[in-house]
Write a structure and sequence with these properties.
Strand order of the largest sheet: 2-4-5-7-6
Low-confidence stretches: 153-159
Number of strands: 7
Strand content: 25-35%
Mean pLDDT: 82
Largest sheet: 5 strands, mixed, barrel
Distance between the termini: 91 Å
Number of helices: 3
Amino acid sequence: MNPRRKKRLFAVLAVIFGIGSAVGLTLYALQENINLFYTPSELIEGKGPDKELPYIGQKLRIGGMVVPGSVEREETSLDVTFKLIDTGPMVTIKYHGILPDLFREGQGIVAQGTLVEPNVIEAFEVLAKHDEEYMPAEIAEAVKGIKHEKPKYNLNSEN
């Protein structure tokens, strides 16, 4: 083989190896930051056609409705435990902190946290939705048929 062709071949292989390494390292670095969205049913029964279950310790997001009567607050700390449901099984969410002002039973929420047991999530962030008219397509499909309770008071009316 011609020395010039050897040099070109080596250069091309080095560039391909460099690009492959950069892509591989980027994907490895982002692996911890990828949070998959689940509904309570998908968390328990599996997600997708393969019914793939998340592993213990996986970071994820879960969305659903807070089960009425399930909110339990610790008297001496900021620990809160509540149950989340869509159309199937319930999932327990444990959260340490101050819940959003719009959080209430029967409300749609999204919690971000770590799976600590097959049906228990330790959340580090809880987001409450402010408008029940809009709902992302994933959550709307998951919560079809669940009865939603309207707020018992109206902030805009004079009572």
